[in-house]
Amino acid sequence: MNKYINLLIISLFFTGGLFAQQANNGNATPDFFKDPKKFFCWNGPLSSSYKNPKKHISDVPLIHYYDEKKGAARIICKPNYGFDKWKIIIRQNKSREQQKVKEIATNKNEQKNFTVYAFFMEHKYLVDPTEKPNFPNEKEMDFPAPIHVYKKEGEKWKHLTKLNIKDWSAFSDLQMKYLEL
């Protein structure tokens, strides 16, 4: 009888731990790089808002993730070797710019050269787009809303924090903050 009670207690701890992990993240953590059909890659500028001292980085590897059931994320990739070297690499590969950024998402060896952050908004906070979407039936981010911040660590995405972001300016400042870490 004690054997069955011990098994029951162990299984309750296990399922409780899984439930707590999902509750902490809002949902199970999406694997932003699992399905290339769910992301769009480019190299572009990133700036802080006008509310803070203006900071600007001209060439940042960026990825837009969208899952119609889970939500949307802006993914920024910070080169561990610095943005100046990334700028040189991207200028040498101007015709393959999107492909170079996509390699970060699809090549685990390439990921080791970057610190990757995802800023995720759950689907229930997304709205119909004002412009043509990148993906069929895509919704776009709308504020105010909670943003989950993740960091890519090896094979997993580590949930760092959940913040209530009030507008696009605060969202810009949040992304820039993580690029400066």
Largest sheet: 6 strands, antiparallel
Spatial extent as radius of gyration: 19 Å
The ordered H/E elements are HEEEHHHEEEH
DSSP strand content: 25-35%
Helix/strand-derived category reads alpha+beta
- Calculate the mean pLDDT score and round it: 83
Strands side by side in the biggest sheet: 1-2-3-4-5-6
> What is the general shape?
globular
Distance between the termini: 54 Å
Q: Helical stretch count? A: 5
Any idea how many domains? 2
Q: What share of residues is helical?
A: 25-40%
Count of extended strands: 6
Uncertain residue segments: 1-26
Quickly list its features.
181 residues, 2 domains, 5 helices, 6 strands
Please describe the topology of this protein.
Elements: H1 2-25, E1 39-47, E2 56-67, E3 71-79, H2 83-92, H3 97-106, H4 108-111, E4 114-122, E5 145-153, E6 156-165, H5 168-180
